[in-house]
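User:
Can I borrow your eye for a moment on a structure tokenisation matter? Would you put together a sequence-and-structure record for a protein of your own picking? Please set it down just below, with no commentary around it:
AI:
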Amino acid sequence: MHEEARAARTTDPAPTTDPTALVELAARLLNGRTVHKGRSLLGLTGPPGAGKSTLARHLVTELNRTEGPGTAAYLPLDGFHLANAQLDRLDLRSRKGAPASFDSLGYLALLRRVTVERFNDIYAPGFDRRLDEPVAGRHVIQPHTRLVITEGNYLANDEPPWSSVRALLHELWYIQAEDAVRDERLMRRHVAGGRTREAARDWITSNDDPNGEYVKLGLTACTRVVCAGDLRQVPGGGSVL
């Protein structure tokens, strides 16, 4: 992990953060790198249903409003889900969302490209929950983008190649939520995606819950902890969860 992140973890270990300060903290990271003409990478991690993607999109929206369009960009790990055809080939469809179901090396390669390439648009895939498939080129990092916010379950994982991902991040925030709150969100997500409540419950029990327990092991590797209870309302910005 970068020296800034190591220092933050040592001097201010995993603080709980008021939501009104989150945009300011992200802006500080964005603007702190301009003197070095570098691009900052902020990672958000936490178990399924913690609110990672919603917070990431909120931060990007607010930074682009206050700092200028395209200043911040969103790069989700979910875009690197293997397609269902590949999961079927590997007999991993029932473990979708587990570490092995991602193109982790492809994700790492794109993050490395983001850190060094400054003169071209860089396109990143997203994930369509209605299709239950990744979608190429959904997000863009532009030459003038100064902060890339990436989020996903396994950014604090200490096993390769995930450990190399963590080393690229200037800061890594852990998004924390009560298990009951996450369970409710996951149920809504899966039902909205077309599963029956019974099928959704089976998926949460057999897949999301084990993955979530594994993700929790990485909490101590993060530079900051954000409690989901603090994120429900942001003044002037509505709900971010």
Notes: The beta strands are 40-45, 72-76, 122-128, 133-141, 147-151, 171-176, 224-227. Residues 49 and 176 are 9 Å apart (CA to CA). Residues 3-224 form a domain with the Rossmann fold fold (CATH 3.40.50.300). The mean pLDDT is 87.
